[in-house]
Amino acid sequence: MLLEVKHVKKIYQSGPSQTIALRDVDFSLDKGEYVAIMGESGSGKSTLLNLLATFDQASQGSIHLAGQDLAQIKADKVAQFRRDMIGFVFQDFNVLDHLSNRDNILLPLVLNNQKVAQMEARLNELAPLLGIEALLDKYPYQVSGGQRQRIAIARALVAQPDIVLADEPTGALDSKSSRQILDLFIRLNEMGHTLLMVTHSSAAAATANRVLFIKDGIIFHELYRGQATEAD
Ligand code: ADP
Ligand code: ADP
Predict the structure, then answer these.
(1) Are 1 and 32 in contact (CB under 8 A)?
(2) CA torsion, points 167, 182, 103, 113, in degrees to nearest 10?
(3) Dmax over Cα atoms in the chain, in whole Å?
(4) In sequence order, which residues have a C-beta less than 8 Å from that of residue 96 and are 6 or more positions away?
(5) What is the DSSP letter of 171?
(6) How far is it, in rounded angstroms, from Cα 111 to Cα 162?
(7) Does this UniProt record's set of keywords contain Flavoprotein (predicted)?
């Protein structure tokens, strides 16, 4: 079991008022899976992904990633754990505009003090896979949204994480670019990458091998590829 989420609850407290974003979320995921968590806006998707990504902590319950209880990681070790284990893909790409696409992609390796030759080797592996060779010397603002997302995906993959988490990765893209990103996810999964995506898009979710449906902070239904989807 790569990821084990047990009875996770998340409450946001702001002054006297509280929002229960996750009520009781329970699921697990094996290495090599491609899972989508699908739900409408406000259902708790981003909250859940932020907990899995160690950006935030659950109020109750536990999350284990590769056997590590996320709540037990010391504060000064969280960033390194995240860099080693998790690749994150954002809806709005989150690339740095003052860095070239190449430097954006290599940033996680620079932070890991990798040698230049190793970084170049990794880039030479990833660039053709993602179709971004011609974009490396450009800056993010010089390429399209779909291309920027491929740069961001390269950055997510560059340190060879155990899992890639994607928050609505096609949400800012037109339908053609969305399709290209989803086809890329399918291919990455076929190559063995473990992917977990949250989305409100049934087209996006349909590319996963397993879909978990979330509503009001609860996963209420689960489908495997090949089964008919109610959502369609
Ligand atoms: P989704 O990603 O599915 O749109 P979210 O996880 O963003 O859902 O939100 C789930 C619920 O938690 C919503 O009711 C939202 O308003 C609330 N929420 C999200 N983030 C915060 C926050 N930082 N503070 C207070 N409430 C929040
Ligand atoms: P377009 O005009 O390019 O067809 P839309 O404005 O319909 O795009 O949606 C933009 C993107 O948002 C889509 O390409 C898709 O990735 C995503 N999207 C939003 N809602 C849905 C949905 N219900 N089903 C599938 N995709 C959706």
Answers:
(1) no
(2) 70
(3) 54
(4) 103, 104, 107, 140
(5) T
(6) 18
(7) no
Contact 163, 65 (CB under 8 A): yes
Can you tell me the distance from the alpha carbon of 160 to that of 83, in angstroms, rounded to the nearest whole number? Answer: 9
Tell which one of 47, 50, 51, 212 to mutate to probe ligand 1, the residue whose CB is within 8 A of the most ligand atoms.
Answer: 47
ipTM of the complex: 0.71
Q: Report the separation in Å between the CA atom of 36 and the middle of ligand 2, taken as the mean of its atom positions.
A: 16
**Sheet arrangement for strand 60-65:** 17-29, 3-14, 60-65, 68-69
Beta bridge partners of 22: 10
Half-sphere exposure of 210 (CA within 13 A, CB side): 15
Residue type, position 229, single letter: T
Tokens in use for 103? 């430097």
Per-residue pLDDT of 93-135, as tens digits, reads 999 999 999 999 999 999 999 999 999 999 999 999 999 999 9
The minimum-distance atom of ligand 1 relative to the CA of 47 is: 6
d(CA 134, CA 204): 27
Counting ligands in written order, the one closest to the CA of 18 is 1
Q: What is the pTM of this model?
A: 0.87
Ligand closest to Cα of 175 equals 2
41 lines ligand 1 (CB under 6 A): yes
Please report how many Cα atoms fall inside a 13 Å half-sphere around the Cα of residue 134, on the Cβ side. Answer: 5
